[in-house]
Write a structure and sequence with these properties.
7-stranded mixed beta sheet; Rossmann fold; about 25% strand; about 240 residues; two-stranded antiparallel ribbon; alpha/beta
Length: about 240
C-alpha cells in the first residue's frame, strides 16, 4: 500500500531567505518561469524548494537532482504531478544528460561543495540548459581569492568552516583524503561533495557568470553564516 506523506510538512524545512528568493523569481520575472531544475535539493531539506515551486508557484515541471534520495522525497515526488527525481551527481555528464532544458536552475547551498568537476565547470555545463541561475550560497570572506578549503590544512580548515572535527563525516578527514570514499568507487574523500570544498568569492562567481553571458538581476546579503567571519550568506539571480 502506498504511504501518503503529509505534503505540507515540507514547509518546516523552508528557510525564509530562500523562499523569499523564489517568490521574487516567480512573481517579478519579466517572463514567469514554468520549469526548473533543483540541483542537490534533497540533503537537509527533503526537496522542500522543489515542492514550494510546484505547490506555491504552480510550475509545470521540476527536476530534483541528487545522489541520495530519501524515502520521504520519493513519496513527495510520487504525489506531485510534474515533479521528477533524477538520481546522480548533478555535475557529471551522464546526470546532466538526463536534465532537459529548463527556465531556471536552483543552486542552494551546493556550489561550495562541487569538485570533480569544480563549481565553475558545473555552471558552464548548466549554462547549456538554462538562461537563469538562482543561487543561494555561503560565499567566501576569508581572503581576497577563491580558495580550495582543504588546501588550508586541518587547523585552518576547521577554524574557517562550521564543522566539528569529530562529526562522523569529518572525523579523521585529513588522514583519508586520498582513500576511496565508500559511496563512490571513482572518488577519493578529497573529491566528494559531502564535505565543504570551496570558499568562492563574489568576484570570481560574477566573473564566471558574466563570461557565460549572464547579468545579475537580484542580490541580497543575509550576513554571516553561523557566526563565522569567513562565510556570508548571499543570494543571486542571474539571467541572459
Amino acid at each position: 500500500m502506498t504511504t501518503i506523506v503529509e505534503k505540507t510538512s515540507y514547509r518546516d524545512k523552508l528557510l525564509d531567505h530562500k523562499s523569499e528568493l523564489l517568490d521574487f523569481l516567480f512573481n517579478f520575472s519579466p517572463i514567469r518561469p514554468r520549469t526548473f531544475a533543483d540541483l542537490g535539493g534533497v540533503w537537509g531539506v527533503e526537496g522542500a524548494y522543489s515542492l514550494y515551486a510546484m505547490d506555491e508557484h504552480k510550475c509545470q515541471a521540476g527536476y530534483l537532482v541528487d545522489t541520495h534520495p530519501t524515502e520521504k522525497v520519493l513519496e513527495y515526488v510520487e504525489q506531485t504531478p510534474g515533479l521528477n527525481f533524477i538520481q546522480g551527481n548533478f555535475g557529471e555528464a551522464e546526470t546532466i544528460a538526463q536534465v532537459p532544458r529548463v527556465d531556471c536552475v536552483f543552486l542552494f547551498d551546493v556550489l561550495l561543495h562541487q569538485v570533480k568537476p569544480n563549481w565553475d565547470v558545473v555552471l558552464r555545463r548548466y549554462a547549456k540548459k538554462t538562461n537563469c541561475f538562482v543561487i543561494y550560497n555561503q560565499q567566501w570572506a576569508g581572503s581576497p581569492n577563491t580558495t580550495r578549503l582543504l588546501e588550508l590544512g586541518k587547523e585552518a580548515y576547521f577554524a574557517s568552516t562550521p564543522h566539528d572535527p569529530e562529526h562522523p563525516v569529518y572525523r579523521d578527514l585529513f588522514n583519508k583524503l586520498d582513500t576511496k570514499h565508500p559511496d563512490y568507487e571513482n572518488r577519493n574523500w578529497r573529491d566528494v561533495h559531502h564535505v565543504w570544498q570551496w570558499g568562492i568569492t563574489n568576484g570570481e562567481l560574477e566573473a564566471v557568470l558574466k563570461d557565460l553571458g549572464y547579468r545579475k538581476t537580484y542580490f541580497a546579503d543575509f550576513g554571516s553564516f553561523g557566526g563565522l567571519k569567513t562565510f556570508v550568506n548571499h543570494a543571486f539571480i542571474w539571467r541572459r
